[in-house]
């Protein structure tokens, strides 16, 4: 959880509430119970207020002395991948995740964008999780590859865009869906959720199928930040509701994931995910 400084063709906004945990939880909370594990600084009270307004369990959010995480990004007019970005880790430099008992008993675990060492610590505290999904940041693929490899061998579902997947699996030029199939084999994953931005999503499964899902229709894109986390929140939230994780369930849940992603990109920050249900 943190604050973003965002520049897109629609303009610029500073101190926008954001972060993987916030986008994910707001996308998932209408479908299932969500328990957030994150850290904020003494300046992060407004982030807690957003969780409280949505009745999301924040007992796993640590408020520590120091500044909340901040991320700055400038987005290309037609590409969801930032042209430039930088981060200030703030309290995440020293934070060690300590999960409350209810969070430790979660059946579905989403390891959102944070340092792989912290993802491993969370994973170790949830030995009973039946479905573990991972998102990774491009920065960590080269700088912390050893820890990332440990995680990849222990998760079931990988969310990745094309840039991340090609960094994970450097190889002669091949179709990105073929790379996803290689990832399934290398790390014994159940599925890879390949995020293609405006081109939609491809779900590649162990049984050898690649199913393509179009992006949800909606208003023009204002800010692509958080789309992937919202996609994961909507998809995993529906799987939790269905109490299934098979390919057919993923296909059903993709509607919720795509809808959450569309809501996220309709505004700067998370307001699109705060809109009342219709």
Concise summary:
The protein is an alpha/beta fold and 278 residues long.
Extract low-pLDDT stretches.
Answer: none
> What CATH architecture do you see?
3-Layer(aba) Sandwich
Q: Overall 3D geometry?
A: globular
Q: Can you list the strand order of the major beta sheet?
A: 7-8-9-10-11-12
- Average pLDDT confidence is 92
Distance, first to last CA: 27 Å
CATH topology: UDP-N-acetylmuramoyl-L-alanine:D-glutamate ligase
State Rg. Answer: 17 Å
How many discrete structural domains?
A: 1
- The CATH homologous superfamily corresponds to Ribokinase
Report the strand count.
Answer: 12
Q: Level of helix content?
A: 25-40%
Order of helices and strands: EEHEHEEEHEHEHHEHHEEEHHH
Q: Could you say which structural class the secondary elements and strand pairing correspond to?
A: alpha/beta
Characterise this structure.
- The chain is α/β, with parallel strands linked by helices and 278 residues long.
- The protein has one domain: 3-Layer(aba) Sandwich (UDP-N-acetylmuramoyl-L-alanine:D-glutamate ligase).
- It has 11 helices and 12 strands.
- Strands 7-8-9-10-11-12 form a 6-stranded mixed sheet, sandwiched between helices.
- Helix 4 links the parallel strand 7 and strand 8.
- Helix 4 runs parallel beside helix 6.
- The mean pLDDT is 92.
């Amino acid at each position: 959880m943190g604050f973003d400084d965002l520049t897109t063709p629609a303009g610029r906004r500073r101190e926008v509430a954001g972060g993987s945990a916030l986008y994910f939880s707001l996308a998932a909370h209408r479908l299932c119970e969500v328990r957030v594990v994150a850290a904020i600084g003494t300046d992060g009270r407004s982030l807690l207020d957003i969780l409280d307004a949505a009745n999301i369990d924040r007992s796993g959010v640590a408020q520590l002395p120091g500044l909340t995480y901040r991320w700055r990004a400038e987005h290309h007019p037609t590409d969801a991948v930032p042209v430039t970005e930088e981060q200030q880790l703030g309290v995440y430099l020293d934070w060690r995740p300590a999960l409350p008992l209810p969070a430790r008993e979660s059946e579905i675990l989403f390891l959102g964008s944070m340092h792989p060492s912290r993802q491993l610590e969370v994973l170790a505290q949830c030995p009973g999780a039946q479905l573990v999904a991972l998102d990774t940041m491009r920065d960590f693929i080269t700088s912390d590859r050893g820890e990332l490899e440990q995680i990849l061998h222990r998760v079931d579902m990988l969310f990745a865009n094309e840039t991340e997947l090609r960094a994970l699996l450097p190889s002669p030029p091949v179709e990105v869906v073929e790379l996803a199939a290689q990832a399934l084999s290398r790390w014994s994953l159940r599925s890879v959720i390949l995020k293609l931005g405006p081109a939609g999503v491809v779900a590649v499964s162990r049984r050898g199928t690649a199913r393509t899902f179009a992006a949800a229709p909606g208003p023009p894109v204002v800010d692509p930040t958080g789309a992937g986390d919202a996609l994961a929140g909507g998809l995993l939230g529906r799987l939790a509701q269905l109490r299934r994780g098979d390919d057919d369930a993923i296909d059903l849940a993709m509607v919720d994931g795509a809808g959450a992603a569309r809501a996220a990109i309709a505004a700067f920050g998370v307001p699109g995910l705060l809109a009342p249900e219709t």
